Amino acid sequence: MIADTVITIASTPQSNARLFVDLLAILATAVFVATLFKRVRLESIPGYLVAGALVGPHALKLVSNAESIAQISELAIILLMFTIGLMLESDALKRGMVSMLAVGVVSTALVVLASWPIAMALGLDAPQGLVASLAFSMSSTAVLLRLLQQRRELRHPHGQLCVGVSIAQDVLSVAFLAALPLLAVWQSGGTDPAQAASRMHPAALWGLRLVAVACILVAGRIVLPTILHAVAGSARDRGATASSELVLIASAALAIGAALALGSLGFSPEMGAFLGGFMLSFTPYRHQLAGQLAPMKDLLMAVFFTVVGLRLDPGILAANWAHILFGVAVVLFAKTTLIGATAWALGASGPVALLAGAYLANAGEFTLVIVATAAGAGVFDARDVATAIAIVVVSLVLSPMLLGPIHALAARASSIPLAPWIRASGMRHHAARAAATEDTPSEAGAHAAEHSHRHVIIAGFGPVGRSLADRLVKRGIPFTVIEMNPRTVEKQTTLGKSIVYGDVTNVEVLESAGIRRADALVITVPDELATMRATQVARSLAPGLFIATRTNYLSQAIKARQFGADSVIVEEIVTAEAMANLVTELLEARKSAPFG
Asked: What global pTM score does this model have?
């Protein structure tokens, strides 16, 4: 599939020109529609879908070569799934989130079981209804994180619960994609499961495929850190830019390789790319890669959702508007109710459970991936796909609008007692601890006073950074180091130091180091361009942070202060003062020395 995409793109100059025109129409329209959506405080993702419908063959017909665009979209979704897997909070699995993950697994199963008969009542047969239920049990991770960040609720109890459920859904989506070939065989064999079973691959073959996948995961878990360490180390002598560039290229090769490997085993390439990213999320290079891929992820999301919108047929939508509105109502109500009820039953309070259900009520990108993959396998026809996309669009538009009323309702839900059968819940403890670290406007002053000079970020672990770290250790002040040398990161990690691999100018790296909760950032790297950029980025993320930097010349110090540095050590001034002191002491010593 990937090779076919490359051949299609490079076929002829005329086709290339047409392809570029189509891409221009898609991207320009996506920007225009998404901007309008933002003006009215709607999310950009449904705007991309609407933009695709506008330029598609059923409306303005600005895109003439939909097949080539679709093939580019296939490559885009492979890389998009890779970045989603990479940005998955794998560390959360180690932080006592068993209860939150259980909410995700149980609520997803309940949504599937509840919506399957409803889908069949709307005219789908058993395998189609099951695939639709699996697809719509997924929520939008991208929209969820954006809403939580915009409302500064990511570390609130319901925000942490939503992240835990999202992790569970992301992992379950891999299992759903793996099951699609079997469901496609069931679909092609009719509604009789016994007849379909006779046409399925032998169980032994599927067992071998699953074993092969497990071997790939284990091998990747063991081998990948070594490979990336070797790549980063070989380029370290040429600077941080070369090192991060080669790690990025190696990771992109991994994404395509994993897609090809699992595709050859009978699974979807999207599943392979997701697992490839997930394997990388366990390496120390995760934060750096996530920051480097974040802009590309936004671009790929725009291309993917816009191309999906090309399948929206206004005629089909007009003929099925009742089914679409009913489907949206079922999705929003069922997911809010079942996710909220599951969260409450497993230990969450009433307000937290209600808010979690509301934030996760929509359908999302994994819904579209499952629907597209199922359509490619012959499970859905064009009418089913268009209806499913329309339900996703409307759910993404409506769900953010419901958050205001839901928050007001959640305030009244505090009277709901905790589940009597849950005496102790790790979810409550983890959520409360996470909420305690979140700065609200009323708590900011107390937090700053309580933690003043208690958390420092040191960017660069050379001689200056090491000397500063030693002084902080003697004073008992905790710190986190950001360093681009993989050997240093590995060594200091084994010594128990808090250290993050990455570039200090990378937003994701600064976030992972705790920039929003730090008291001070000390930039010790001897690169003035990186210092200026890091100062600017850090100041935008944490306006109240104390930032200290170093520069070679006084002119650069002035610029650093303009970018937001509070204190700047100018090396030429320090050198001049040191030399002046040295000469003065020498002259004084000679003056007082006896002659002879």
From this structure: 0.69
Pairing of strands 520-523, 499-501: unpaired
What are 580's two structure tokens?
């002046």
Question: What is the per-residue pLDDT for 317?
Answer: 82
- Say how far apart CA 149 and CA 152 lie, in whole Å: 5
**Structure tokens, 57:** 């063959």
What is the C-alpha separation between 492 and 497, in angstroms, rounded? 5
Task: Pick the closest to residue 154 from 446, 345, 439 (CA basis).
Answer: 439
Cα 493 from chain centre? 24
Q: Residue 522: in which H helix or E strand, if any?
A: strand 520-523
How many Cα atoms are found within 13 Å in the side-chain-facing hemisphere of 12? Answer: 3
CA–CA separation, 359 and 417 (whole Å): 22
Report the SS3 class of residue 56. Answer: coil
C-alpha–C-alpha distance, residues 259 and 274, integer Å: 8
Give the integer Cα–Cα distance in Å for 271 and 369: 10
How confident is the chain (596 residues) per 10-residue block, as mean pLDDT? 46 65 87 90 84 86 71 73 70 60 92 94 91 94 79 79 84 83 77 48 60 75 80 62 74 82 75 81 80 78 82 82 92 95 90 93 89 88 89 89 89 84 60 44 37 75 90 91 86 88 87 88 88 90 90 85 90 84 83 62
Which residue, 550, 527, 557, is CA-closest to 464?
550
Structure tokens at 222: 């063991």
DSSP state of 551: E
Residue position matching structure tokens 């004073």: 475
If we measure between CA atoms, which residue out of 304, 314, 480, 472 comes closest to residue 386? 314
d(CA 341, CA 339) in angstroms, rounded, equals: 6
Q: Half-sphere exposure (CA, 13 Å, Cβ side) for 176?
A: 30
Residues 6+ apart with CB under 8 A from 166: 104, 139, 141, 144, 360
Question: What class has domain 448-592?
Answer: alpha beta
> What are the structural domain ranges in the chain?
91-282+314-415, 448-592
Q: Which residue in 81, 97, 99 sits closest to 142, CA to CA?
A: 81
Of 99, 119, 79, 142, the residue nearest 366 (C-alpha): 142
Task: State the greatest distance between any 2 C-alpha atoms of the chain, in Å, as a whole number.
Answer: 114
DSSP-assigned beta bridge partners for residue 546:
520
How many other β-carbons are positioned within 10 Å of the β-carbon of residue 211? Answer: 10
